[in-house]
Amino acid sequence: MQQQDDADRYVQRATEGDIFILRLANPPVNTLRSALRAGLFAGVQAAREAGAKAVVIVGTGRMFCAGAELTEMGKPRVPPGLHDIADEIARFPGPVVAGIHGGAYGGGLELALACHARVAAKGTKLALPEVKRGILPGGGGTQRMPRLIGPIPAVRMIVSGEPVTAEEALKLGFVDEVAEGDDIEAAAIAFARRALAEGRQFVLAKDRTDKIAGADLAAFDAEVETLLKRSRGMLAPVNCAKSVRAALTEPFEQGLKTERALFNELVHSEQSLALRHIFFAEREAQKVPGIPPGTQTVKVKKAAVIGAGTMGGGISMCFAAAGIPVTIVEANAEALKKGIERCAANWRRSRNAPPEEEIQRRLSLMNGTTDMAAIKDADLVIEAVFEDIEVKEKVFAELDRHARPGAILASNTSTLDIDRIARATKRPRDVLGMHFFSPANIMRLLEIVRGKESSPEAIATAIEVGKAIGKVPVVVGNCDGFVGNRMTGKRGPQIEKLLAEGCLPQDIDRVMESYGMAMGPLATGDLAGLDIGAAVRRARGTVAPIADAIVAAGRYGQKTGKGWYRYDENRKRHPDPEVERIIVETSQRLGITRRKISDEEILDRVLLPMVNEGARILEEGIATRASDIDVIFIYGFGWPAWRGGPMFWADRVGLKEVRDRLARYAEATNDPNLKPAALIERLAAQGGSFASLDGGKSPLASATAAAS
Ligand code: NAD
User: Where would a tag sit more exposed on the chain, N or C end, judged by fewer CB atoms within 10 A?
Assistant: First the structure.
């Protein structure tokens, strides 16, 4: 009885004459939890038993349906499943019409595809995004979509997971009508009435063959090959493509079995677990202690950026692209002109270059000046001048004089003390860090640095504006390097030692790139400039004999055409015998006998120092939760989402094992950075994991803990 009540709660029933209406009602986004599926199954059955002529299925609230309930994923299945509902729809004698508004994603779209027809409100988004969670559409989507729109459009949608609009879906052929107006239920009922009046016969997707009969398999395979190039190392896109291919070579029922088998391969995979971890982690990161939802914010209608260099330019591009006017203040008129020209050039040569009139519109939102007084009506000012505390203090004192009361004042510093910068003003509550990553117009991470006095309103404003310009904001505490750079900074000494003991730059980069990183750490160093690291070492009084020798040889990285590698005219990197000579000579000078170092050891010695520092960052409360750190690495450091991030990696290795390996390498390499952090010692002793720290609240905490 309880079950029946539950089912009724999630699917409301209504009738309009001889049309039966089923409204999905699982706020906020009508995910297909088991009780909702039961309600839907029972609802279609009840419509048949009541002798209804047609059924209309709609969603209540924001959208039709966001798909599977991710928290139920990987658990034993509770019937009825989507297939049972599809069978029940097929048993219904009249048309079953899905009325879709807002969005239909994953299982939500698969439900709609199992209906006889689909009416979608203008602007609705439709997608099969399962690939982004490391799985495939397992509710018949890979079999029905190609039958509705043909193999190549279907495989593109399913392998990319990208949404299409209702209008595009109409053209592709999986939506039957685009409805104007807000009342999708009325539109779907009107569609059903018209169909009944016309005696229109519908063929269900499963029974259609017109789009797949005689499909050109060679053309299909060639398309798949191109699509898969973009997802190196990932399993899900491969299985998505295989499953769509089965629709071309197997009868429908057999194809469903193939789809199920390929789905099962993925659902328990490490990659899918990692991708779901990141999906939840991104949402968790938006919950910031002390900043409850509804915290007052400053509405940013106008922004200002100080400095038109590499970062200032990129940050200004983000505002202009989002339609927010931005005043750019430079000390130097020449740098200002160059900076704005560079923005235009970057847009023109970007992969998805906007049309010229859009570039002009964006440029018209940029107002360059050398007069600091021009910031007076900005709601948010972001400083991106030289990384020098005295320069920044001077700039903030000036901002304090010119900015309107209540404006938020942010610094893009990578390392400097936000509290000290705030003290240069008389309004430290309005000051915080907004740390963008280079290239700022592309990298999605935004570390929001909370100073001692930063107000909740200032933090909430930075989060809100960050989202508005397409970033993924993560709030962190104030310390040297904050989270991301502080952790990657700890790799340096181990990389130096690996080179001294037997590795070449290309060995380390190969291991990290085959792990899935967009670029290995040495190639990344060449991109950023090796002189920067050398300057930091000088300032801190540390030495790195090999890295210092490389810089001393005038090899500063890509900007001098050579660094850890030699670069050709297309900026392609090549191993350089001179680098090998410098490294081997330095090893000799240090009295080290070079040896062959295994890939496993390289991976461990690059990742473990970061994880150990991540643990210290958690101890100090600089990051709120381990999963926030993973989000930082995915969006700011080219870490592949399907690996889940450094803290997730450590949990999967198991913290006992991590502790033992850290201790072993700390001793073998005489590196105090590798002495296991107290938090790792404690969790290892308790059999705990980083995921278990937030009270096991993460839906994946039990899964990740189970591995350790
Ligand atoms: P940059 O040298 O390219 O640009 C700095 C610009 O600021 C120059 O054009 C300079 O003329 C201008 N400037 C200096 N003093 C000024 C003043 N008083 N008023 C107005 N303009 C002034 O430097 P960048 O790489 O863009 O770095 C800027 C800041 O961003 C630094 O704090 C840096 O640490 C931080 N950051 C840099 C990166 C990166 O990868 N480059 C990444 C994140 C953060």
Answer: N
